[in-house]
Design goal:
548 residues, Glucose Oxidase, domain 1, Enzyme I, Chain A, domain 2, 3 domains, eight-stranded mixed β-sheet, eight-stranded parallel barrel, 16 strands, binds phosphoenolpyruvate, binds magnesium ion
Length: 548
């Protein structure tokens, strides 16, 4: 077994035979011409032909990988029409009386070098695009067909480098993975590999000799390794991983775009929990209906000082915009207890979980709170934002919060700043006190989201951080389940909707129970969305209630 390493540009596992892809690079001969005008017309015709080919490639790519993935061919069309490139070719033909092939080849090489010399990695990656269109123009001039790729069975394509046009021309169903010796993570080939959902490794010192053809290999896009002639134990291990991956993909494909509706027609919203903007990719990939909990304290925990209003605004705006019109519930900072930031200078406490934390900090230090509220409200002009307050214990607290929010809104009005005047306000239900006051609290807000992690801690009097108590920390405790029912009933009576954003929300053994209780939303980590959607779609709530 030979193990090679490279740069993984797309995760996944591929197992199959290797097929070495070789370009039929064309050698260009310089020839003197007498009729330079005729040579320029040949070049013009070749450009038109290349543009038509690129249009066809663009159309194929749009169908296969969508507009973003196809954009590279639009860029290539623009390069074919690039004034500097055309000037250079015509200049060489006119001044040196040489054939168009040679003028194109020299211009292409000069432009490619220019990109390679650039500091910016992205622009260096464009050198491959210049090479690609130069080769296409030369093929059009000489009438030679561009190199193709044919295989009867799906294979792992191994190549020195791959141009985007080569990548997209390959039959997608016949490619398990790309492994290239060269190529940057910024290249369009890697971008295309990502959009095609194909594991890809670049910068891998793999041999391109003919005897590689047909050899068995495993590509592990998680660890960036290629195993050639894998040992049986490695093969068995990777096969298991692949099966898991395929299961996940199947689930994803089948359930994307589907409703979260039970067999007997009950709907529920399934949203995602996030900690930062990096999670957004997963949120979209897993088809979340919105964001049910953005733990904004991670912005504070990742800073050395209080994050400024504008800094926060940009982050919230990005989340709101990325989610389009879908709901984004931003929880105000839930700092304290296990989430400590030194610059808050919080006093050392005997019982931090029962101490100065979350909304208690916001209410005692309103300037910090107001900065965050301003940032969230300003971001609400860019999407469908809602604000949620953690660790609530009383109606009075909510009234105080609402006064502060009204004050911040008035400030923004006075400054003429845009925000969503009907922004939804909600609270987390994490304390037994809030459970007991559910109906009264619901009358004050638009929604509840149950933080089952803390509600379990505070109801069972078990420190959630204390590992030695794990055996006692039982979120299925009948007392807690009773509370969950009280919460949703109280919410609905008081005119609010109710969701669950604690870990229990993704516990599939309770999905039917949550639906039966009447919950309107469950917010879970992105990777749990599709399994939860599957569970909801397999549940018959009335049957479940009958059988209980
Ligand atoms: C919870 O307590 O359930 C919750 C969602 O908040 P966190 O886990 O951030 O405390
Ligand atoms: Mg909590």
């Amino acid at each position: 077994m030979l193990v090679l390493e490279g740069k993984a540009v797309f995760e996944g596992i591929a197992i199959g035979k290797i097929s070495v892809y070789k370009k039929n690079e064309q050698s260009v001969k310089e020839e003197k011409v007498t009729d330079t005008a005729a040579e320029i017309i040949r070049y013009e015709n070749a450009r038109k032909m290349a543009a038509d080919q690129l249009q066809a490639l663009y159309d194929k790519a749009v169908k296969e990988v969508g507009e973003d993935g196809a954009a590279v061919f639009e860029a290539h069309q623009m390069m074919v029409e690039d004034g500097d490139y055309i000037d250079s070719v015509e200049n060489i033909i006119n001044s040196e009386s040489v054939n168009a092939e040679s003028a194109v080849s020299r211009t292409g090489e000069e432009f490619r070098q220019m990109f390679l010399d650039m500091e910016d990695e992205y622009f260096r990656g464009r050198a491959a695009d210049v090479k690609d269109i130069t080769e296409r123009l030369i093929s059009c001039l000489s009438g030679a067909a561009k190199a193709g790729f044919m295989s009867d069975e799906p294979v792992i394509v191994v190549a020195d480098d791959l141009a985007p046009s080569e990548t997209v021309q390959m039959d997608k169903d016949k490619i398990l993975s790309f492994v290239t010796v060269h190529g940057s993570a910024n290249s369009h080939t890697s971008i295309l590999a990502k959009t095609m959902n194909i594991p890809a490794i670049m910068g891998c010192p793999v041999s391109l000799e003919d005897d590689m053809n047909g050899r068995m290999a495993v590509v592990d896009g998680f660890e960036g390794k290629v195993y050639i002639d894998p040992d049986p134990d490695i093969l068995a291990l990777k096969k298991k991983l692949l099966e898991k991956e395929l299961e996940k993909k199947e689930l994803l494909e089948k359930l994307k775009g589907k409703d979260n509706v039970t067999l007997d027609g009950q709907r529920i919203d399934i949203y995602a929990n996030i900690g930062n903007t990096k999670d957004l990719e997963l949120v979209l990939k897993n088809d979340a209906g919105g964001i049910g909990l953005f733990r904004s304290e991670f912005i504070y925990l990742g800073s050395d000082d209080y994050p400024a209003e504008d800094e926060q605004f940009e982050i919230y705006k990005k989340v709101a915009e990325t989610m389009g019109g879908k709901k984004v519930i931003i929880r105000t900072l839930d700092i304290g207890a296990d989430k400590q930031a030194a610059y808050f200078n919080l006093p050392a406490e005997e019982n931090p979980a029962l101490g100065l934390r979350a909304i208690r900090i916001c209410l005692t230090r309103p300037e910090i709170f107001k900065t965050q509220l301003r940032a969230i409200l300003r971001a609400s002009a860019f999407g469908k934002v809602a604000i949620m307050f953690p660790m609530i214990i009383s109606v009075d607290e909510v009234k105080k919060i609402k006064e502060i929010v009204a004050g911040v809104k008035a400030e923004l009005d006075a400054e003429g700043r845009a925000y969503d005047k009907d922004i939804e306000l909600g609270i987390m239900i994490e304390t037994p006190a809030a459970v007991m006051l559910a109906e009264e609290l619901a009358a004050e807000v638009d929604f509840f989201s149950v933080g089952t992690n803390d509600l379990t801690q505070y109801t069972l009097a078990i420190d959630r951080q204390n590992q030695t108590l794990d055996a006692f920390y039982d979120p299925h405790h009948p007392g807690l389940l009773k509370m969950l029912k009280m919460i949703v009933d109280g919410a609905h009576k008081g005119g609010a909707w109710a969701g669950i954003c604690g870990e229990l929300g993704s516990d599939l053994t309770l999905t039917a129970e949550f639906l039966a209780m009447g919950y309107d939303e469950l917010s879970v980590s992105p990777g749990r969305i599709l399994p939860l959607r599957k569970k909801v779609r397999e549940t018959n709530v009335s049957e479940y209630i009958k059988e209980k």
